[in-house]
């Protein structure tokens, strides 16, 4: 059973390596199948954690515990592997169907990214967390640089510099943790002296680095600038994988290594509340579809981490539920935007209009996904937000009122942003000239041809992710019971520590 | 014992100064200095404080873990430095204040509307 864990990293990595030499028509399906396989392995691990062992450990290399590099799977890691694997498979299927994956090496780089993500989710060791985050970032640098032309390279510079400086801070933090506690194994650190100020400072350095990578305000400003500059499928991939892995690591480090925020809950709450507000209202200044959505990604980080800041069982469980919801819905919205951009060659509000009548199927998918993002039924966003607010109701009095008030005010901001997006792109007079007309690189095709429609194959991936979000609405009890089990694993560490340190 | 912290301090100060420069090549040098500082911090974190060398027991042997950390970190920094130098070489200039996305160029394949232009601060 535990022998499967290294393969979750090895198989995508190997597929990436093989994909470099194989012809494209083999690699493109491969890049869909391999993430699906890891998702299937994630489901298998989930079933195992529910019925049998709550924690599965593989000490890679056969060294004694404490020296060996542990790979640990618990409910939290398994559910993340399932959802990220599924979302990557759908996004890569879109890249395949839309022709974007015809770019040489794109499928291979995406598989390498998946390998890094799985490693970061499964590792039980802070230093390996750093290594796997680097494994995840290296293909991303190339993906950002390759999916565009010269203009994306400038953004690539920003992205590389921000992430590299952050990684250096993470490395310094890991070094400080080792200096204070003598180990970087999370299970050992769970038993370290959490009240030692030197230890708390060292862990705070790690948390700082992870917050930058997660896009928490005030470290968010790189995210809405960098992500919209890549192509839409790559942005969907990054949105599902990058920030979410950083958020997962924050959950893990705060719960296991730090043992909760204790005296600093107020600071965590303040940061997540500001994140929600800034993200929710940040979209209002943007006039491009994906820039608009990138601010909502920032807002999502706030809602997810609100659960962590509250820190109760219900809080952690609903934060994790929100994360699953956010991965699926954001993926759906970005793939919808990708379909628009592939057909109409523009994502600007001023150029798009009246898409509702031209693209009824896409309009339905996007509308449902937007409603879900804001928190209306009938999709996962409703229960995600209900969960977060229920968790906030368990706080003490002044905080409770502030948190619930800010959640409502920030949701109104998201609603306004989505209304704006809808009004400028789907409503309005029908398109008369192609949105790309008059641009230097598309001098021809100024009339909209009557037959210009997004083909079904462009819209179906977005619909698949939306369908998964609808499943979360229909069966919230099942998903909540899984995230509650994951939250239990974060609160009661005895099973985790025992499994990792047992000889 | 004050040499190591002072070296780290100088490296971090120099690294941060270079990071704040507009040119990407200087930023690359800044990141290199910062990662040197990180490596020294890792070494300072416990050369012999926590455990000895695993194969040979005896006085004066060093902890292998920080060295493994440093080795891994050096390799990663090397790879990223090469990539960043490539990025600095591409695209006309290496200025990070003026994003190349301010002016669409004829060779742009997908104009996807990244929106407003930005002016270089005077």
From TrEMBL, chain A:
The keyword Transmembrane applies. It is found in: Cell membrane; Membrane. This is Monovalent cation/H+ antiporter subunit D family protein. The chain crosses the membrane at residues 29-47, 78-98, 105-123, 129-146, 158-181, 201-223, 235-258, 264-281, 293-314, 320-340, 361-381, 401-422, 458-482. GO terms for cellular component: plasma membrane. Keywords: Cell membrane, Membrane, Transmembrane, Transmembrane helix. It is a multi-pass membrane protein. Residues 124-397 form the NADH:quinone oxidoreductase/Mrp antiporter transmembrane domain. Belongs to the CPA3 antiporters (TC 2.A.63) subunit D family. The lineage of its organism: Bacteria, Bacillati, Actinomycetota, Actinomycetes, Propionibacteriales. InterPro entries: CPA3_Na-H_Antiporter_D, NADH_UbQ_OxRdtase, ND/Mrp_TM. One of its GO terms (biological process) is ATP synthesis coupled electron transport. One of its GO terms (molecular function) is NADH dehydrogenase (ubiquinone) activity. PANTHER family: NA(+)_H(+) ANTIPORTER SUBUNIT D1, NADH DEHYDROGENASE.
Automatic annotation (TrEMBL), chain B:
It is found in: Cell membrane. Pfam families: Oxidored_q2 (PF00420). Signal peptide: none annotated. One of its GO terms (cellular component) is plasma membrane. Residues 102-122 have a biased composition (Basic and acidic residues). Its main location: membrane. Coiled coil: none annotated. Residues 93-122 are annotated as: Disordered. Keywords: Cell membrane, Membrane, Transmembrane, Transmembrane helix. It is a multi-pass membrane protein. The chain crosses the membrane at residues 28-47, 68-90. Belongs to the CPA3 antiporters (TC 2.A.63) subunit C family. This is Cation:proton antiporter subunit C. It comes from Nocardioides bruguierae. The lineage of its organism: Bacteria, Bacillati, Actinomycetota, Actinomycetes, Propionibacteriales.
């Amino acid at each position: 059973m535990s022998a499967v864990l290294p393969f979750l990293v090895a198989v995508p990595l190997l597929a990436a390596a093989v994909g470099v030499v194989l012809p494209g028509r083999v690699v493109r399906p491969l890049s869909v199948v391999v993430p699906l396989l890891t998702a299937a392995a994630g489901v298998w691990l989930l079933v195992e954690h529910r019925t049998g062992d709550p924690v599965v450990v593989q000490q890679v290399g056969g060294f004694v515990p404490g020296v060996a590099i542990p790979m640990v799977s618990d409910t939290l890691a398994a559910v993340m592997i399932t959802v990220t694997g599924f979302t990557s498979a759908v996004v890569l299927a879109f890249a395949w169907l839309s022709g974007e994956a015809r770019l040489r090496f794109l499928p291979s780089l995406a598989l390498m990214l998946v390998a890094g993500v799985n490693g970061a989710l499964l590792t039980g060791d802070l230093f390996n967390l750093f290594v796997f985050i680097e494994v995840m970032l290296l293909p991303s640098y190339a993906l950002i640089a390759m999916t565009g032309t010269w203009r994306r390279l400038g953004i690539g510079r920003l992205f590389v510099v921000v992430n590299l400086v952050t990684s250096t801070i993470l490395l310094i933090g890991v070094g400080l943790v080792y200096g204070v506690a003598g180990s970087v194994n999370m299970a050992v650190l769970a038993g370290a002296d959490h009240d030692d100020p030197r230890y708390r400072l060292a862990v705070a350095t790690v948390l700082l680095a992870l917050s930058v990578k997660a896009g928490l305000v005030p470290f968010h400003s790189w995210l809405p600038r960098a992500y919209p500059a890549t192509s839409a499928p790559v942005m969907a991939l990054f949105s599902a994988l990058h920030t979410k892995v950083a958020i997962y690591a924050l959950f893990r480090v705060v719960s296991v290594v730090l043992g909760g925020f204790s005296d600093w809950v107020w600071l965590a709450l303040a940061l997540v509340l500001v994140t929600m507000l800034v993200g929710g209202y940040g979209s209002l200044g943007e006039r491009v579809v994906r820039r608009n959505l990138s601010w909502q990604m920032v807002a999502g980080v706030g809602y997810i981490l609100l659960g962590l800041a509250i820190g109760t069982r219900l809080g952690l469980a609903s934060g994790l539920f929100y994360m699953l919801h956010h991965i699926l819905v954001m993926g759906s919205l970005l793939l919808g935007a990708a379909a628009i951009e592939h057909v109409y060659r523009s994502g600007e509000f001023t150029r798009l209009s009246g898409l509702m009548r031209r693209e009824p199927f896409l309009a339905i998918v996007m509308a449902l996904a937007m409603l879900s993002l804001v928190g209306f039924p009938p999709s996962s966003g409703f229960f995600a937000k209900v969960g977060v607010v229920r968790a906030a109701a368990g706080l003490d009095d002044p905080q409770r009122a502030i948190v619930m008030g800010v959640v409502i005010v920030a949701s109104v901001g998201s609603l306004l942003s989505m209304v704006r997006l809808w009004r400028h792109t789907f409503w309005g007079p029908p398109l008369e000239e192609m949105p790309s007309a008059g641009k230097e690189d598309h001098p021809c095709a100024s009339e909209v041809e009557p037959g210009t429609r997004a083909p079904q194959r462009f819209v179906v991936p977005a619909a698949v992710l939306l369908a998964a979000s609808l499943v979360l609405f229909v069966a919230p009890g099942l998903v909540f019971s899984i995230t509650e089990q994951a939250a239990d694993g974060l609160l009661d560490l005895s099973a985790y520590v025992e499994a990792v340190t047992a000889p | 014992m004050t040499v190591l912290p002072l070296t780290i301090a100088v490296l971090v100060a120099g690294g941060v100064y270079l990071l704040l420069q507009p040119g990407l090549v200087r930023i690359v040098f800044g990141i290199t200095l910062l990662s040197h500082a990180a490596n020294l911090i890792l070494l300072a974190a416990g050369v012999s404080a926590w455990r000895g060398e695993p194969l040979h027991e005896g006085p004066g042997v060093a902890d292998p873990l920080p060295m493994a950390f440093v080795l891994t970190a050096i390799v990663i920094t090397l790879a990223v430095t090469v990539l960043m130098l490539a990025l600095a070489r591409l695209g006309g200039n290496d200025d990070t204040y003026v994003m190349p996305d301010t002016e669409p160029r004829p060779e742009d394949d997908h104009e996807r509307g990244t929106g407003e232009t930005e002016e270089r601060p005077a």
